[in-house]
């Protein structure tokens, strides 16, 4: 059986034309050794765990291993299945990019619903990408900053941006003509059972995405917005994971007093095109 690194090298060589050097934006070559070298001789290495580190300087992410493990468990429990199904339906084309992909489950599950898809995930947090490469070796996982992304212009048919910060200039640069950006933002009822118990009567109890929607509409054409809302049962064993998976949970003081038997996903799916 091929090692994770060997699978990643093959995959990267096959899809080499998507990538550029994040330092000088020149073309790169993926060598058999696993080195990715640009025409200016900047070099990046495919790690043994099967991902590529494209960071040009180390950054301290606020997201640690525990957060991604918690997200993985919650996503595996099926809480986001309906969202992933809808995202797979809304996607267009073959080349998919997930920006701020975290531990990779959304992209992996969307990819499974789109046979033939060639999927790339990028996240600034190495811990997220390590988890993604561990669980989903067939996809291409990059540690990188959206502000300096290692992708050639006009490379992707669909860009996902799920519950993560965006960089619209970069999205426009790497989107193919006719390509689509799909951004998922929390809506007012997102995880409301958790917020009601944790932050009763404080402003954190409600959530507004108005500014994000306005900016998205200014940045893209043919913008469509659809709301997806559902409530699913939750086992008490998953409550600590829910508290761990979002920065909101970190600020809750009496964590062991939180009792939940259901949880609501309420999100807005914004999609837009270049023209
Ligand atoms: C709340 S998490 C969401 C992760 C994943 N999309 C999910 O829904 O499980 C936000 C993610 O955005 C990533 N992120 C933040 N700034 C970034 C940047 N400049 N470039 C790439 N990723 C970034 C974080 O590291 C984090 O994994
Ligand atoms: Zn270079």
From TrEMBL:
- Listed binding positions for S-adenosyl-L-methionine are 80, 103-104, 190
* Domain 23S rRNA (guanine(745)-N(1))-methyltransferase N-terminal span(s) in chain numbering: 19-61
Where does the record place the Methyltransferase domain? 93-206
Fetch the InterPro entries from UniProt: Methyltranfer_dom, RlmA_N, rRNA_m1G-MeTrfase_A_prd, SAM-dependent_MTases_sf
GO BP annotation list: methylation
Q: Which UniProt keywords apply?
A: Metal-binding, Methyltransferase, S-adenosyl-L-methionine, Transferase, Zinc
- For the ligand (Zn(2+)), the binding residues are 21, 24, 38, 42
Gene Ontology MF, one: S-adenosylmethionine-dependent methyltransferase activity
What is this protein's name?
A: SAM-dependent methyltransferase
């Amino acid at each position: 059986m091929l090692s994770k690194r060997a699978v990643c090298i093959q995959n990267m060589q096959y899809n080499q034309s998507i990538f550029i050097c994040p330092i000088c934006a020149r073309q790169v070559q993926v060598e058999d050794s696993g080195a990715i070298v640009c025409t200016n001789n900047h070099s990046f290495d495919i790690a043994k765990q099967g991902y590529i580190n494209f960071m040009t300087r180390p950054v301290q992410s606020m997201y640690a291993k525990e957060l991604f493990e918690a997200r993985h468990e919650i996503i595996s429990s099926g809480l986001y299945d309906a969202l992933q199904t809808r995202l797979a339906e809304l996607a267009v084309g073959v080349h998919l990019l997930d920006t701020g992909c975290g531990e990779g489950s959304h992209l992996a599950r969307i990819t499974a619903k789109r046979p033939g898809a060639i999927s790339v995930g990028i996240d600034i947090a190495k811990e997220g990408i390590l988890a993604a490469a561990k669980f989903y070796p067939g996809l291409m996982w990059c540690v990188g900053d959206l502000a300096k992304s290692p992708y050639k212009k006009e490379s992707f048919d669909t860009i996902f941006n799920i519950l993560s910060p965006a960089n619209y200039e970069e999205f426009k640069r790497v989107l193919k003509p006719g390509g689509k950006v799909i951004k998922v933002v929390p809506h007012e009822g997102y995880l409301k059972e958790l917020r009601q118990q944790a932050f009763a009567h404080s402003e954190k109890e409600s959530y507004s995405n108005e500014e994000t929607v306005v900016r998205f509409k200014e940045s893209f054409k043919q913008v469509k917005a659809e709301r997806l809302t559902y409530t699913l049962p939750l086992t008490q064993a998953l409550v600590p994971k829910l508290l761990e998976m979002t920065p909101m949970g970190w600020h809750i003081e009496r964590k062991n007093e939180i009792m939940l038997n259901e949880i609501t996903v309420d999100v807005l799916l914004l999609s837009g095109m270049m023209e």
